[in-house]
Each structure stands twice: as C-alpha cells, then as structure tokens.
Design brief:
By secondary structure, this protein is of the alpha/beta class. The chain has helices at 8-22, 37-50, 54-63, 65-70, 79-89, 92-107, 130-138, 181-186, 206-215, 237-244, 247-252, 256-269, 278-296, 338-354, 362-373, 384-392, and strands spanning 112-113, 116-122, 151-159, 165-173, 193-194, 196-199, 219-221, 307-308, 315-316. It has a five-stranded mixed sheet with strand order 4-3-2-6-7. A two-stranded parallel sheet has the order 1-5. A two-stranded antiparallel ribbon has the order 8-9.
Length: 408
C-alpha cells in the first residue's frame, strides 16, 4: 500500500534527501557555489508537482519562503538556472543514481522484491484537449491538418507491494512492447532483487522468457496470446509452460498494480510532458518517475530524521518552525501533525500486510505442521473391534500406553 504526499514542503525535503544520497553538492570544483545540485533537483521536483514551467516554479518559490528554508535556499534561482540544471541533472547516469537512492531509502534493509509488474503507457505532448481531438477526427469531409500519431512513451517495472518504480525506459510511440522487456530488465535498480515479474500479452516472446529467467534469474508470467488465434500449442518451452502451469496464473491477478502507478502519475502530475524535442520529453518523463517515488517516501523514516549540526548539541528539525532543543543522541520526531501521519501510514501498511492472502502452498505446509505437532491419539494402535469395545463399556478406562490393549 502506498500513499503519495500532496505537501510541497515535504516533497521538496524528500527530494533534497534523495539528491544528497546520490549526487555531489557541485558538478565540479570550479562551479559557482550559489546553489547545490540537491537544491536545484528539489526545485525541479516541485516544478513537476505544481504542473508548471520554470518561470512558474520560480514565482511559487518567491511566495513560499518556508520551502526555501527547508532545503536551505538563501535566494530563489532564476528560471534559466533551473533550465540548465534540468539538462544536467536528468541525464541517464544521474537518473539511475537518483532512482536507486529513492528505492533504497524506502526499502531500507529489504532488498528482495517478491512480485513486480511491467507495462508501458503513453503521455500527451500537446495542450490540445481530448474533446478537440475527438471532434476533429469525427467531423465528415473536414480537412484535418494536424495528426496525432506520435506520443511520448514510458515503460515501467514497479514493485507490487509499495508501488515504487524499479526500472524506467523512455521512448516514442506507437510501437510494440515485445522488444522492450530486455532493456527494462537491464535498467533495474541495483538495490532491488526481483524474484517474479508479471506483464501483459504485449511482452509475450520466448526470448523474453529466456532472457529474464536465464540471464537475470527472474520468474516471468506472460500470457501466451501473441500472434494470430489458433488451437495449436504455443511454440517454445516457456510459452507452453504458461498454458500448463496453474501456479503462474495466481500471480497474474496482481498485474493491475502497474496500471495503478500509471494512473497515480497522470492524476498527481498531469499526463502532459512539455518539450519540443524527444530528448526534452524523455527528461520530463524521468522527472515524473522520480517525483512519483519521492512522493511515496514520506512514509519512511527519512522525513523524520533529524538534521544535526556538527557544531551544536541541539537538533533542528526542518519540518518544524522552531528547534525543539533536545539532545543530539535522543531520537527526534516532528511534534507537529507529521508524526500522526507517519503513525497512520504505518498502521495501514501493517494492516495491509496482515490481510494479504498467503502464497501458494503456505496453507498446506501449515496444516501438515499442525498435524505433526499433535500428540498421537490412544486409538491409533487399537483395532476397530477393540475401539468399539472400549467406547461401549464405560467402566473401562483408556490405557495410557496405546500399545497395551485393554483386557475385556
């Protein structure tokens, strides 16, 4: 179960923490020391969260000095500074580090992902309304000068338990999904180890099964429905295995979790990615995936971790308006309503884990262990005739040793 935060101040602080875990403060030693890369990345995440552009997030930061104080900004960066920072920070090597840091901060010591789901979704590249596009395409004898064929495409592998994005591949559609799964598996974050991956029939291919199972050690569940309908058995060992085994079908019901992630991104951040070129749209889709992971991080301990100064014995919480004055060694939490939010999130997550159905085979193993733990029945060593005699005569007591038969 995952809950996305709607608080800009909390999201900015989480983005600042993620950038500190993965990126240096400055790109090189001769860089101007006006803003750190951590602060600029937090501003870019706010731009995506506010659904605005560079000038818009600059105006929002001028009107929200509390957010600037939370991430340590002494002055608001110019919109051209944010534009140049977006080109530098959202390159593929940096995005891989940021995505891995966001996953590691949320999962903490848990490295194994029991079940993951893969899917792709399309984004909007223009501001034209869907009603306008639908009307222009339905009007008869109307010369339509605008075509709506190309769109930005984003392929994801997500954790079905926490809705975190584990892998991200950007491209341009429409195009088939069958050849994108190997690249998505190669882009998995190093912190997470996926055990099982489910996807729809668009990824059905014998090579995809072979690459995931033999090269990455990941079990795959993909319906063997690719191609023309036929009554013959599918070609390939793993594709025929999908039709024979029933165990794989039980996990396929969780594939809708990746559809939930696609809906969360489009509802919270908007379905449009700005940009005139494919490279700029790819950077915006990477930023959207990072913003999604960072918004989920608010249920983790990172938001309530105290910010300690090496020259002071006091602890300063960036989410509180005033320092609490506690000792550095004492555990510190925000005295405001953030603590209540964390307790609610923890309770709901625990309740979700308790109500999950057991995996295949757990009930059988539990019943076998329960039968083995029971003491042997005294009737086990008696013949049916002796059992009838013992139960019919109330004066005869049950023997303590089952091997000794009662005397008539």
């Amino acid at each position: 179960m995952s809950i996305s935060s709607k608080s800009p101040r909390k999201v900015a602080y989480a983005a600042w923490e993620v950038a500190k875990e993965s990126l240096p403060a400055y790109p090189h030693k001769f860089a101007p020391k006006k803003f750190t890369q951590h602060q600029l990345f937090a501003c870019l995440v706010l731009m995506r969260l506010f659904k605005t552009d560079y000038r818009g997030v600059e105006a929002c930061l001028h009107d929200m000095p509390s957010i600037c104080k939370t991430i340590g900004l002494k002055k608001v960066p110019h919109f051209t500074t944010l534009h140049q920072a977006e080109k530098r920070l959202l390159r593929l090597p940096n995005v891989r580090k940021l995505l891995d840091s966001s996953v590691s901060l949320e999962m903490d010591r848990r490295h194994v992902v029991a079940l993951a789901a893969a899917d792709s979704t399309g984004m909007d590249a223009t501001r034209a309304s869907r009603y306008f596009v639908r009307r222009r395409s339905r009007e008869p004898n109307l010369w339509q000068t605008t075509t709506y064929k190309r769109f930005p495409k984003m392929s994801l592998i997500v954790d079905c338990r926490s809705h975190l994005i584990l892998s991200l591949v950007t491209g341009r559609g429409p195009r088939p999904d069958v050849d994108e799964l190997p690249e998505m598996l190669d882009e998995l974050v190093p912190h997470a180890t996926v055990r099982h991956c489910v996807s729809d029939a668009g990824y059905d291919s014998e090579w995809n099964h072979t690459y995931a199972r033999d090269y990455h050690g990941i079990l795959t569940t993909i319906p063997a429905r690719h191609g023309r309908p036929t009554d013959k058995a599918p070609s390939g060992y793993y594709r025929r295995l999908m039709n024979r085994t029933i165990e794989h079908r039980a996990y396929y019901g969780q594939r809708w979790q990746v559809e939930t992630v696609n809906s969360m991104i489009k509802r919270n951040q908007g379905a449009r990615v700005p940009g005139l070129t494919q490279w700029s749209r790819s950077r915006q889709m990477r930023l959207a995936a990072l913003t999604h992971n960072i918004a989920i991080l608010l249920s983790d301990w990172v938001l309530y971790r105290a910010r300690m100064s090496p020259l002071s014995s006091k602890v300063e919480c960036p989410l509180c308006p005033q320092p609490c004055g506690r000792l550095r060694k004492a555990p510190h939490f925000s005295p405001c309503s953030d603590l209540i939010d964390a307790m609610v999130v923890t309770f709901l997550s625990t309740l979700h884990n308790l109500n999950r159905p057991p995996a295949i085979g757990d009930r059988e193993r539990f019943s076998i262990a329960r039968r083995r733990s029971r003491p042997p029945s005294p009737f086990a060593a008696l013949s049916p005739r002796d059992r009838e005699r013992v139960t019919s005569n109330n004066n005869l007591s049950m023997p303590s040793n089952p091997s000794v038969r009662p005397t008539p």
